[in-house]
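Q: Given only this backbone (278 positions), what sequence would you predict?
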């Protein structure tokens, strides 16, 4: 195979939820930058189609991220197919249980936790068993702005994304001695089939979801999977060699500024006690 060039040249990555949405966008971006990639997903048809499209730099692994056997097998495939594992991106996710806390069933809660949190634990566990002997690697996980502020997602989803951030910081503190960096990405609203379902009720209505997301973005446009893929690329690359235990928020500033406050456009004044103006 010809030597690859790019920001991830020579690196091997495993991306869960890699068959669609942010995962598929990241698979494409990583391959563009020279990586060899395991596409891990329960969606066999789109996963195999993506591998067929991208060629020898990719392999597909059927992977239920709640199954330790499946996650371990996907990691083993990376090693057997490409010789190592440099980047683990725990990205697979669902919206999960929705509705009032009083009406949320324990089964729906447990399933959400399995997909959104247990999966990240399993990915970190099995990536570390390969990366520690290598004395290096990068573990990434998809969190969310719902993991930073309340009210931006369903209860179970919000709890799990907060936990992903906590686990990221905790595991980073353990693995730094082995040269392994552990970081998370917290996307804001990003146009995918999953978010289209949440916004429009129709996972195929990408156009309307894009329009609605753009209307609420402080920057005036809807985030796409490529925006999150670029964040993952940075954290996976040697450019981020001194970054670990970090949460990279990619949300057009929604969690830091809350959008554009009406006070910015007001006539200059000093508003004092009881609302008096100078």
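A: Predicted residues:
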């Amino acid at each position: 195979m010809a030597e690859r060039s790019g920001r991830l040249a020579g690196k091997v990555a495993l991306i869960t939820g890699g068959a669609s949405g942010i995962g598929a966008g990241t698979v494409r971006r990583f391959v563009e930058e020279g990586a060899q990639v395991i596409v891990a997903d329960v969606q066999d048809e789109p996963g195999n189609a993506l591998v067929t499209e991208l060629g020898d730099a990719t392999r597909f692994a059927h992977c239920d991220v709640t199954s330790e056997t499946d996650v371990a097998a996907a990691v083993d495939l990376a090693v057997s197919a490409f010789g190592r594992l440099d980047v683990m991106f725990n990205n697979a996710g669902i919206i999960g249980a929705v509705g009032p806390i009083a009406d949320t069933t324990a089964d729906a809660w447990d399933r959400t936790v399995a997909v959104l949190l247990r999966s990240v634990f399993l990915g970190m566990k099995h990536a570390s068993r390969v990366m520690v002997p290598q004395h290096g690697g990068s573990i990434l996980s998809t969190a969310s702005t719902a993991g930073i502020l309340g009210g931006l997602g369903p209860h179970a989803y919000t709890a799990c994304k907060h936990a992903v951030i906590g686990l990221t910081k905790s595991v980073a503190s353990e693995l730094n001695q082995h040269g392994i960096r552990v970081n998370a990405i917290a996307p804001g609203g990003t146009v995918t089939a999953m978010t289209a379902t949440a916004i429009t009720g129709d996972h195929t209505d990408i156009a309307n979801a894009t329009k609605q997301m753009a209307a609420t973005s402080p920057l005036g446009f809807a985030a796409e999977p490529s925006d999150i893929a670029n964040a993952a690329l940075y954290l996976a690359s040697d450019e981020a060699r001194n970054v670990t235990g970090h949460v990279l928020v990619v949300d057009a500033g929604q969690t830091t500024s809350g959008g554009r406050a009406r006070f910015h456009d007001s006539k200059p004044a000093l508003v004092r006690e009881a609302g008096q103006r100078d």
